[in-house]
Amino acid sequence: MTPADLSRYVVSAVRRAVEDGELSGAVPVRVVIERTRPGGVGEYATPVAFQIAKGAGRRPAEVAEVLARRLGGVAGIERVDVTGAGFLNFALSPLSAARLVRDVRPVIVTDVEAGVPGTPARERLVRAAVARIEALQGVPPGPEPVAVAPVARRDGDVLARYGADAVAWAVLTTPARETPEFSDALLVQGEDNELFRVRYAHARAHALVRNADQLGFRPEAGEVPDAPRLLRALADHPVVLEAAAHHRAPERLARHLVELADALLDFQYRVLPKGDEKPSAAHRARLALAEAAGTVLAGGLALLGIDAPTRL
Question: 99, 121, 124: which is closest to 111 by C-alpha?
């Protein structure tokens, strides 16, 4: 089970509880699932009980207990816990690499209008990224524009020194109400530069596919038991997109791209055969996983309005 599946199962549990008369009120269209915070229980959590408690005329903890009983027997959910005033926490069964790979689709991004002429560059960048993420998720635009703190320097000076992609990264990794910082670290082509790592990981995914082709084999979805970090990062991606749209926070997507890139860069050394080793089903499955991660990185950068070169 993936976190996206979990969201659908939670919605279904709410619907069944309402239909059976155990709960009352409106059934949410979607439920936000997020990674459990440090010190929490399980892997994922949702505040859905707070969302529906008022309409149900019950305390959130009571609503959460109702839903926990209904979700406890679902295949793929190993454990459900209720914590705090009514948070649902989940531990899921191991992920299927083959399914994750098959579920990955390239993101097609249509550019959007992000303000009238004269709008400061930071506002345009943030609002455009939010609009793209909302459009991808099918979320109607918020009634008010995202409130954005100003940049201390003039737009032209920043763009001239650092370039459009580096400026976009600095802006979109900073919460909208905080002021982004610009330094020469944005220009470093090395591992200390997060944007470089994300773009380099994407380029490495393409290089692995090219190198495999020269060795005579292609990607083929299969199970990859030795990549838990990369599998978890890929599984989290739909949930991160949903949270980024819900909170209108592109920095959530940017942070996740760094996590995914670092996982791929760590995994890349296990993809291709070594020495006289012949390509096997395991190599094809690892290659498919790396290619899927590269596709997700490219789509994420496109949502942020940043170029994703295939060679660096």
Answer: 124
